């Protein structure tokens, strides 16, 4: 599954504001978007990633993405962050 990368990543950002910041700062190597997240939230991140040339990977659900990030709640977006 694609979210295995999230589990293995040393640094992860979750949440739209944090992920957008990481993408803008060229620190995100890949962004994961939950398919069941509100498109009004995720479209901005997806467009930003396209503009900045960051790979976007879709995962099945917010629940799975949140779990992969090690948080108890669902996550709409998450980014693998390069230091």
What characteristics describe this protein?
60s Ribosomal Protein L30, Chain: A; globular; 24% strand; 4-stranded mixed sheet; 4 helices; 83 residues; 4 strands; alpha+beta
In short:
It contains four helices and four strands. With about 80 residues, it is of the alpha+beta class.
Report on this structure.
The chain is α+β, with helices and mostly antiparallel strands. It has a single domain (4-81), classed as Ribosomal protein L30/S12 (60s Ribosomal Protein L30, Chain: A). It is built from 4 helices and 4 strands, in the order H-E-H-E-H-E-H-E. The longest helix is centred in the middle third of the chain and has 14 residues, at 39-52.
Topology, element by element:
Elements: H1 4-8, E1 12-14, H2 16-24, E2 28-34, H3 39-52, E3 55-59, H4 62-68, E4 77-81
Parallel strand pairs: 2-3
Antiparallel strand pairs: 1-4, 2-4
Helix pairs in contact: 2-3
Number of separate helices: 4
Question: Could you tell me the radius of gyration in angstroms?
Answer: 11 Å
Indicate the low-confidence ranges by residue numbers. none
How many DSSP-defined strands?
Answer: 4
Strand count, sense and barrel status of the largest sheet are: 4 strands, mixed
Name the CATH homologous superfamily: Ribosomal protein L30/S12
Assign the CATH topology.
60s Ribosomal Protein L30, Chain: A
Broad shape: globular
- Please tell me the overall pLDDT: 92
Number of domains: 1
Going by CATH, the architecture would be 2-Layer Sandwich
Assembly of the depicted chains: single chain
Instruction: Work out the strand percent.
Output: 15-25%
- CATH class value: Alpha Beta
The span between the termini is: 24 Å
The SSE string, one letter per element, is HEHEHEHE
Helical/strand content category: alpha+beta
Protein name: 50S ribosomal protein L7ae-like protein
InterPro entries: Ribosomal_eL30-like_sf, Ribosomal_eL8/eL30/eS12/Gad45
Domain Ribosomal protein eL8/eL30/eS12/Gadd45: 4-82
Keywords: Ribonucleoprotein, Ribosomal protein
């Amino acid at each position: 599954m694609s979210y295995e990368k999230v589990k293995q990543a040393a640094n992860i950002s979750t949440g739209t504001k944090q992920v957008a910041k990481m993408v803008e700062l060229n620190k995100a190597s890949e962004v994961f978007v939950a398919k069941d997240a509100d498109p009004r939230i995720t479209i901005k991140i997806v467009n930003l990633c396209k503009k900045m040339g960051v790979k976007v990977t879709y995962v099945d659900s917010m629940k799975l993405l949140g779990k992969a990030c090690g948080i108890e709640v669902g996550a709409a977006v998450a980014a693998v962050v390069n230091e």
